[in-house]
């Protein structure tokens, strides 16, 4: 058996909540199915309202316990111990992510788990080296005043995360929340519950006081996710997922006027100018369209190529796409895995049919691959390229969240900027050009939270991350995370 399949076979088969330092079950449970071959991987506890309440109460008690006395240095040390704990169980985390999602092993190793560790180390370092604002002023009566700012934890933070980068996106929020002294109730996606359960084991073993990190499993609407957002004793909700879910959560927290941070969907564009390094642009767009089978929030689904190189670019991307190898991650050489579930595959297939109805030319893909083995019970979709759709087509405007991109020609800089910005979303974009000034100019005109020039998905964790329009609300990363996860108090002292 392939090594990581063997490690996965040793992972827990009954996934439980982690509340107040203990693993607990619930009367209800649901099956987590493999997207690779459809078999049942585990039974997962389905939190009822009592379990969610117990987790929130445990987190609240933790705010009054020893955690409150932890100095910044002690919190940073705790975060480094958690990072060490993930590092020590690196292969189990990789195996969990690969089994739950079907992603390539190399991606789980190099991106998902490596970033999960980096999230804890980065925020440990940031909180250790953070400074505070200070202003000296003179009042109207001539008194000298000293203003300085202190940070307090928000209190109990609800973290709700998606399935597409399970550990990476969960820890992206848990790490800064803990760094700032909050306690956490995390609700991972029902589609990817295993790495979160391993993280709870690491938290327990790291010596974090009981109740500082709690985990509840379950679904979203009418279940654990919704109850968490409606719980009166939560101080803030930080959420990554679909824009529609963000809108539902915003309504749920409105009455309590809770703090929220939202990282939501996207319909991201790549712009390839005729002066681009052609091969680098083809490789970049290949990666940005098909990494994780298109299931990364920053994946490109709209590609605009300057007309003189349009045909050549489409042909080159077609050739590179057809060289991708789709299948089980346990087969050597496989580059592209399945959709997360049969339901998500069916949603993506719906868009493949719609694109044809809308008049697309299917350059490559457009169907379900056949394997002649157990993978035929999995949730695979061929990497697909379309051309020929009008800008008004639903497939050019709605987030598919699968291995698809549409390529359209453009003639002028102003025109392409307008077409890229004509979107309800505003998460990410990439620009491919060797013209230095144009790279800067176009990047500054695009209405998204992040723009890469001659790059994609390079992330410095100190920089702000988030989206505009339907893609989100607020920024996380570096001091922006510290700002979200803490309450600032200005202290004004009369010194003379
Ligand atoms: P989703 O919104 O369906 O679910 C995300 C989480 O929210 C899950 O844990 C789910 O159980 C929970 N949830 C669902 N309904 C809820 C409700 N009514 N109340 C409370 N919780 C609820 O999203 P998904 O399908 O898991 O993830 C894919 C989406 O996430 C895509 O749209 C993608 O673009 C987006 N995403 C965005 C970013 C970003 O950083 N902007 C990153 C990754 C994914």
UniProtKB/TrEMBL annotation:
SUPFAM superfamilies: ALDH-like. GO terms for molecular function: oxidoreductase activity, acting on the aldehyde or oxo group of donors, NAD or NADP as acceptor. Keywords: NAD, Oxidoreductase. Pfam families: Aldedh. InterPro entries: Ald_DH/histidinol_DH, Ald_DH_C, Ald_DH_CS_CYS, Ald_DH_CS_GLU, Ald_DH_N, Aldehyde_DH_dom, OHmuconic_semiald_DH. CDD domains: ALDH_F8_HMSADH. Residues 28-490 form the Aldehyde dehydrogenase domain. The active site is at residue 263. Belongs to the aldehyde dehydrogenase family. This is 2-aminomuconate semialdehyde dehydrogenase. It comes from Cupriavidus sp. ST-14.
């Amino acid at each position: 058996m392939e090594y990581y399949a063997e490690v996965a076979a040793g992972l827990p088969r009954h996934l439980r909540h982690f509340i107040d330092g203990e693993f607990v079950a619930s009367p209800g449970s649901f099956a987590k199915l493999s997207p690779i071959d459809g078999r049942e991987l585990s039974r997962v506890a389905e939190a009822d309202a009592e379990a969610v309440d117990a987790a929130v109460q445990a987190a609240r008690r933790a705010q009054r316990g020893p955690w409150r006395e932890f100095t910044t240095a002690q919190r940073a040390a705790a975060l480094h111990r958690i990072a060490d704990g993930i590092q020590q169980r690196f292969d189990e985390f990789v195996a969990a992510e690969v089994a739950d999602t079907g992603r390539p092993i190399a991606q789980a190793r190099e991106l998902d788990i490596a970033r999960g560790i980096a999230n804890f180390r980065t925020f440990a370092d940031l909180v250790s080296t953070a400074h505070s604002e200070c202003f000296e002023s003179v009042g109207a009566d001539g008194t000298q005043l000293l203003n300085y700012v202190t940070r307090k934890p928000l209190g109990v933070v609800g973290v709700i995360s998606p399935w597409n980068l399970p550990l990476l996106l969960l820890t992206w929020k848990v790490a800064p929340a803990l760094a700032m002294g909050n306690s956490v109730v995390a609700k991972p996606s029902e589609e990817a519950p295993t790495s979160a359960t391993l993280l709870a084991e690491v938290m327990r073993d790291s010596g974090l006081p009981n109740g500082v990190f709690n985990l509840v499993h379950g679904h979203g609407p009418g279940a654990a996710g919704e109850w968490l957002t409606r719980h009166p004793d939560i101080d803030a909700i930080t959420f990554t997922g679909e824009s529609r879910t963000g809108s539902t959560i915003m309504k749920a927290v409105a009455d309590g006027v809770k703090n929220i941070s939202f990282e939501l969907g996207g319909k991201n564009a790549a712009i390839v100018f005729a002066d681009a390094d052609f091969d680098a642009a083809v490789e970049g767009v290949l990666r940005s369209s098909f990494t994780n089978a298109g299931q990364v929030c920053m994946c490109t689904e709209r590609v605009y190529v300057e007309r003189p190189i349009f045909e050549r670019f489409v042909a080159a991307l077609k050739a590179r796409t057809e060289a991708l190898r789709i299948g089980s991650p346990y087969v050597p050489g496989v580059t592209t895995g399945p959709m997360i579930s049969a339901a998500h595959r069916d949603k993506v297939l719906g868009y493949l049919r719609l694109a044809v109805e809308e008049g697309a030319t299917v350059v490559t893909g457009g169907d379900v691959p056949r394997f002649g083995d157990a993978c035929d019970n999995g949730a695979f979709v061929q990497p697909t390229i379309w051309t020929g759709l009008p800008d008004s087509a639903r497939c050019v405007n709605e987030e598919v969240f699968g291995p698809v991109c549409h390529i359209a020609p453009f003639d002028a800089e102003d025109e392409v900027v307008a077409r890229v910005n004509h979107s309800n979303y505003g998460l990410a974009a990439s620009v491919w050009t060797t013209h230095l000034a144009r790279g800067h100019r176009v990047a500054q005109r695009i209405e998204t939270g992040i723009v890469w020039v001659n790059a994609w998905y390079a992330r410095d964790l100190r920089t702000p991350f988030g989206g505009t329009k339907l893609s989100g609300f607020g920024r996380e990363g570096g001091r922006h995370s510290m700002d979200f996860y803490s309450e600032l108090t200005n202290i004004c002292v009369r010194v003379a």
